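Purpose: get a first structural picture of the assembly so the mutagenesis plan has something to point at.
Setup: two entries, given in the order below. No constraints added.
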Amino acid sequence: MKEKISIGIIGYGTVGSNTAVILQEKNKIFASHTGIEFQLKKVCDNDWSRKREWMPPAAMRTSNYNDILNDPEIDIVVELIGKFQPAYNIIKKSLMQKKAVVTANKFLLSKKLTELLTLANTSSSYLGFEASVAGAIPVIKVLRESFVGNRINSIIGILNGTTNYILSSMSEKHQTFGDALKSAQKLGYAESNPSLDISGRDSAQKLAIISTYAFQRAISEDNFLIEGIEKIEIRDIEFARELGYRVKLLAIAKRTDDMVSLRVHPALIPVNHMLSDVEGVYNAVYLEGDLFGKTLMYGEGAGGKAASSAVIADIIEIGRKLFLKSHLSERFIINPRVNLQPADRIETRYYLRFTAIDRPRVLASIADILGKNRISIASVMQKEENPERAVPIVMLTHTAIEKNVRDAISAIDKLSYIRQPTQIIRVEG
Amino acid sequence: MKEKISIGIIGYGTVGSNTAVILQEKNKIFASHTGIEFQLKKVCDNDWSRKREWMPPAAMRTSNYNDILNDPEIDIVVELIGKFQPAYNIIKKSLMQKKAVVTANKFLLSKKLTELLTLANTSSSYLGFEASVAGAIPVIKVLRESFVGNRINSIIGILNGTTNYILSSMSEKHQTFGDALKSAQKLGYAESNPSLDISGRDSAQKLAIISTYAFQRAISEDNFLIEGIEKIEIRDIEFARELGYRVKLLAIAKRTDDMVSLRVHPALIPVNHMLSDVEGVYNAVYLEGDLFGKTLMYGEGAGGKAASSAVIADIIEIGRKLFLKSHLSERFIINPRVNLQPADRIETRYYLRFTAIDRPRVLASIADILGKNRISIASVMQKEENPERAVPIVMLTHTAIEKNVRDAISAIDKLSYIRQPTQIIRVEG
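Result (structure tokens, whole complex):
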């Protein structure tokens, strides 16, 4: 029975220093809940000149992570440096030495989660990664334990606060994408180089981690159809509103039999869907399972405190397991039957905005090409503007196959009276 | 290392038979996740004539629960009979014999949770009770593990599907309370005697369980201010809508310093609050903590499958612990500092609907009495109808103290030009 757990933190930024502060401020509360004293023993960072919420005493500080990996007293390594290397080696080496690892490294895990879970398994250690996705929302815990009896059929996430903030601003304040991005940067909600967020790749990395876990199969962002939000215009948001939808960047994984389709793209979602109400920098994960039905979890997706809450939960879980003399490892079994669906076989509904000169035959020609590609139209909205100039024609389709839609739009965009590439946004829910 | 876990179910209704079916259909999946064979060994019910989804073979059936309690091979007792006795004795006896218990019995737990958790503790056994509140929503798991580092400051739940369905119907279909109740009964969403749901007591029992856990203190429904939804009229829902609110039956627990206030009542909640979008028979739990910030979990609150999902999660958790040679018990520590706030000290905002003869001095008199009771008015809405007849005057107050509001309304209702008792609905969020 282990009554004192020693912790080393590698990477001492906002989440790291928040975690250190909480471990100290709440030390007695944690001890009363668990019977364990959680002791922060060493902190590693390569730059000790920056200001932090709490500065560890000199004896606790190091700039060499091997001081933590080689310390036999340290039970838990908290990896918060991010990126691929040296994080990958740190985690592997820790697990092989039977140190438990807690990490928030979404980039690394979106590539190596199955390998690291398998390593944790074989070395009887433990990998905690709740903080790597959706901040304080306990999606990994809930999939692993609360919904373990379920077959997961659908995961739809709003997993990136930056893009959700931008789309919310465009919708509420009628800002252009560019203006909304600038104000997000000013408020610290977007980085100076926002491409990882804007492009949808950040969301894809997070959903890769959740999906790997939910579907028991190695999944990386390379398996996703990924579209960013750069092309969304205010008028798309406004047309969507008229049709009863909001526009959100969604990360979607759907399972049909043993086929999983994965995609991240902006989507129209009906205003009566709970996900449509997730505004600003908040995150949400919507799940469907064969037993629990439909569920949604909503919360803060980023920020030092929310991420620290998830790091602390993993630390305490590991502590409890050590205290209870459990073997740490859990079984992570790869399901060989699960296959990934090619992106061009996706089936969904589509919002199409054509920009055409307002001639009598336009609608008929578009409908004809759509029909030949087996795409049927659910509704049409045409704003009568200036008949001399190009006008928007907005259509919602019934369920169609991605490849057919791409083929049809490619043909339509070659018509002489189409004046701009057609806007394609998928519809969800 | 225990590789086979034997289970006995006592009380074989919808949840019980769903659980039995899942344990058999998913047996191999659970074994691959956990390395454990979960075997249903005995099922007890006192009426075997009713039809079930799956009927156990004769050798598995019994009508004497002692056949399960006295079977040394049975590791987990699943208690699904409900009510107080014999459930209370069954659970106590099981825990004392170091059998783990899984229960969905909200009535019993709302009275005896601290006692039973303490007994599980001292007897090194385990009590799983996720299914007792909010169906498949994993609120107990998340409080116990994911948010363990947090101080919980606020819990607001929509915990009763029947009343939420009735209020949704009143709002969407403009039905009276009576008509909405009848249609809920026809659809099987309300029982023929709906008083437990309608009165708010069911919600109070569920929040008592969640709060006991969140605040580490024995809390029963007797500690709640409880008001039901019987008095809500369509016009209150419509006035609320005009003011930007929806009306929901909320179960609220708030902690300020070491004082916890507990109440269940209909409340106005702003349309932009996530809880306002929870419609029909769905449940939701909104939490605030010092680290994770704000979070909401939404899902199916009732139904055999959703409840079974929670029962199965507890069974598998117990199985994993047994498999990993863990001691089963967890520490449940009572926090002696937490006190309960008397109901008349609650502070919140209020919706007040006066029914008054439309005389020039009415508003001034009402405002005068409110002011003397230190209640300040945030907004007033008066519909000019027939000056000869009683008209509704709707007010929203700023934050006021419950006792002051009761005193003021009691004085106002004695005024000669007030023609009906004033409608009081609290405002949340």
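Chain A has three domains: 4-135+303-323, 141-300, 346-427.
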